[in-house]
Amino acid sequence: MEPVYFPFTYVSPSASALFGACFRRTAVYQPLSETVSPALKDMAEAGRFEIRVPVDTDTGRLMNLLNEYQAWAKLHEGRDLKFFTTQGDRVPFFDDAAAHRLSTDIRQRAAGTDGSPPADPLFDARVFLALAQEFDRRQGDFQNGLAAYREMEQKLIQDLKGDPEAPVIGLGGGPALWAEEPGGHMTEKRLEAFSRLAREEETDDRLFITTSRAVFDAALEKIGGTEEVLRIERMPFPEKEAAAAFQSELTAHLTALLENPSAHPETVTFPRAGGGTKQLSLTLRRAGVGRAALLNACMTSGPAADFPDGPADRAILIGFLEGAA
């Protein structure tokens, strides 16, 4: 069973490791083929990810916009998430109003008019996702630098205290550096834009996984009426020789959960591992709606129940996958 990574189009190294531990291959959507990163292409060639580009038109206009964004972002390297807000009429700043304004400006220039261009929600969604992808990549690079500093900071504290289990505190007794979650920034808009793009492709996806708690909670609110069917807590990453067996076992279990609605919920908790041991946790909830209803609900303010699926649609699983050390 192949999960869909949502609502992100940027795959961070940590997300890649988490999905690689649990699944043989994961589907990831892209707003246009020109922005697929070399790292993602390499992982796709290795069979670890399936790259989906449902719509690949207007490439030139979108690339021009991204070039402007990258030039601006280079001037503001190292700023945190809260800095990415509109600043008057300066562009391209990453928020809903700015993305819509940029999309409108591009369509006006293409039409050769100063008037309001025809509405194009799909193009707006692709503009937003393209900006979000670049934003997430830059924020990821910044957070990776912080993570390296945190690791060095904790090692120093452990050495000073002679305690391998030193708590996560910073030097001087204050809290250690905290990484803000990208999914907590414009969560609803991320879901809307992703759903609008994914809706352009007809597939029978039944497993949707996110690495963002904020996204997971928002999606569950949209779906309504879900039940938890599986929880894996603090599982050590499988050893290389055991990875394939674990992936097969997990896939078989997920298939059974979808095909047998009466299956009992299951919680698997592992003992807390020693410091530095990579672990993962996975929470899955089953929803009695299909893919189409989920995507439609994420594009509007209504719950999934207001958007009945066609007769071919079936229930889905939505999950939250996270890692810890």
Essential attributes:
325 residues; alpha/beta; 9 helices; 8 strands
Strand fraction band? 5-15%
What is the 3D form? Answer: globular
Low-confidence stretches: 80-94, 168-178
Number of strands: 8
Strand and helix order:
EHEHEHHHHEHEHEEHE
Strand order of the largest sheet: 3-2-1-4-8-7-5-6
Average residue-wise pLDDT? 78
Cα(first) to Cα(last) distance is 27 Å
Taking Cα atoms only, what radius of gyration do you get, to the nearest Å? 21 Å
- Please outline the major beta sheet: 8 strands, mixed
The count of helical stretches stands at 9
Q: Which percent bin holds the helix content?
A: 40-55%
Helix/strand-derived category reads alpha/beta
Explain the overall architecture.
This protein has 325 residues and is α/β, with parallel strands linked by helices. It has a domain at 4-10 and 189-324. Helix content is 43%, strand content 14%. It has helices spanning 13-22, 38-45, 59-75, 96-111, 121-161, 187-198, 213-223, 243-259, 291-298, and strands spanning 4-5, 26-29, 49-52, 207-210, 227-236, 266-269, 279-287, 316-324. Strands 3-2-1-4-8-7-5-6 form an eight-stranded mixed beta sheet, with helices on both faces. Helix 8 (243-259) links the parallel strand 5 and strand 6 (266-269). The model is unreliable at 80-94 and 168-178 (pLDDT under 50).
